[in-house]
Specification:
- By secondary structure, this protein is of the alpha/beta class.
- Helix content is 42%, strand content 16%.
- It contains 15 helices and 15 strands.
- The strands form three sheets. The chain has a six-stranded parallel sheet with strand order 1-12-11-10-13-14, sandwiched between helices. A six-stranded mixed sheet has the order 2-7-6-5-8-9, sandwiched between helices. Strands 3-4-15 form a three-stranded antiparallel sheet, with no helix packed on it.
- α2 crosses α5, α3 (93-114) runs parallel beside α4 and α8 (258-269) packs across α10.
């Protein structure tokens, strides 16, 4: 590997055994990556669905959605704004308040991001040049349904699109429950596609019936959603990212609270059997104590969360680092989706880390608060892709375009002469003339 650490000794495995305990790996044994975000079999299946809907339009959408039990035969495949409002109005006041407050916090952070990038102008020889910042016109926001519906993902994606200034925002989610529909209302969605999987992505990409053709499709989803996003991204529809299974990595020292670390690891592990909870610590005692907490807390989890988290913990691992700098190097190699810092001088340690999707600093900054709308977005890069990209933000929906204008030809002659010379160096005589 191209990275190096000051210590390469293989640590002893954890003494704690039981369901949920993380295996201890040496530095050399750390997997090189998490997973390929696009499953080959899912890609083949998604391609057939996307091609079918592309060719067959609305009738193919209805047939596919009925086949996969998104809707019943003859049932509408969209929800109107009035239906979304009715869903919100029918919620208890306390649930209405939760959705509204979370949306406000997400929108506030997104507005701060939007304000960080602006139109700009500068002088050039003979004139001026600049950039303009403008949103795409139409966005499709996917939110998972099924076993764990995620109204939080509706808020994270649609509120952020609105804060960016997107004119039309549609949400897609299979079997949306009342809270998910209400979240779409709170996020000011223009409508909801009551369909999931590759068929939803194909519909948002193409535009069918009342569903507009979307310039960009964002949001987390299963392997068929991810596969379909990879396909439509090749035919003119932008996407946010290709996300794989979720990951959390905690850097902890002897000051970290084992119960808190264990709880945060399990919070991520219950997402998916393929999720990866990882602990990197300078303290063998912390790893032992966290494993004890994992066993205890997992036993107290309800079903089916317990079974899901149990399988995920088998994918996870712990690493003993000889120093905090070595722990940072391990984390940077993995480039986790979520990175938690539970050490002395946590902010200083966090600022030394180079590669992560979202950073959570200190024992009180639980990753769950990021999931549920403290402000920053929870749609984050996985599978090591945080080495070159960040999470969903208003910037995902923005286009930065440049312009130039020459007002005084005589003042631009030095540029003209340099352009002629460079064109001839490249053998492009037409450009030179």
């Amino acid at each position: 590997t191209s990275w190096s650490l000051s210590s390469r000794a293989s640590p002893q495995g954890s003494m704690v055994k039981g369901i949920g305990a993380l295996r201890t790996l040496s530095i050399e044994e750390i997997p090189s990556d998490c997973s390929e975000p696009v499953d080959p079999k899912a890609l083949e299946q998604a391609r057939a669905i996307v091609d079918s809907i592309r060719k067959g339009g609305e009738e193919a959408l209805k047939a596919t959605a009925t086949k996969f039990k998104d809707i019943k035969e003859g049932e509408a495949y969209t929800c109107t704004p009035a239906e979304l409002k009715a869903a919100f109005d029918g919620l208890p006041k306390d649930q209405q308040g939760v959705l509204t407050r979370v949306a406000e916090r997400i929108s506030k952070f997104a507005a701060a991001q939007r304000g960080s990038i602006k139109d700009a102008t500068t002088d050039i020889p003979g004139g001026q040049a600049g950039q303009t910042v403008s949103p795409v016109e139409t966005a499709g926001c996917y939110a998972p349904g099924g076993r764990y519906p995620l109204p939080s993902s509706v808020l994270m994606t649609a509120c952020t699109a609105r804060a960016a200034g997107v004119k039309k925002v549609w949400v897609a989610s299979p079997h949306p429950d009342q809270v998910t529909m209400a979240a779409a209302y709170v996020a000011k969605a223009d409508g909801m596609l009551r369909v999931g999987g590759a068929q939803a992505v194909a519909t948002l990409s193409q535009g069918i019936g009342p569903v507009p053709k979307c310039d960009i499709i964002v949001g987390p989803g299963n392997q068929w959603v991810t596969a379909a996003k990879s396909l439509v991204s090749q035919t003119g529809t932008a996407i946010d990212m290709l996300a794989g299974p979720s990951e959390v990595l905690v850097i902890g020292d002897d000051t970290a609270d084992p119960a808190t670390v264990g709880a945060d690891l399990l919070a991520q592990a219950e997402h998916d059997v393929e999720a990866r909870p990882i602990l990197v610590s300078t303290s063998k005692q912390l790893i032992e104590a966290v494993n004890s907490e994992l066993v205890k807390q997992l036993a107290a989890m309800p079903s089916p969360n317990r079974e899901t988290a149990t399988e995920a913990c088998k994918k996870g691992f712990a690493v003993v680092a000889s120093s905090v700098d070595d722990a940072i190097a391990v984390s940077d190699r993995i480039a986790p989706e979520h990175l938690e810092i539970m050490t002395k001088h946590a902010m200083e340690v966090g600022m030394k880390c180079k590669h992560y999707g979202g950073l959570f600093v200190g024992r009180y900054a639980a990753e769950v608060l990021g999931d549920y709308g403290v402000g920053p977005n929870h749609v984050l890069p996985t599978a090591g892709t945080a080495r070159y990209t960040g999470g969903l933000s208003v910037h995902t929906f923005l286009r930065i375009r440049t312009w130039m204008r020459i007002d005084r030809q005589e003042d631009s002659q030095a540029v003209v002469q340099d352009s002629v010379a460079l064109a001839r160096l490249e053998g492009l005589e037409g450009h030179a003339r």
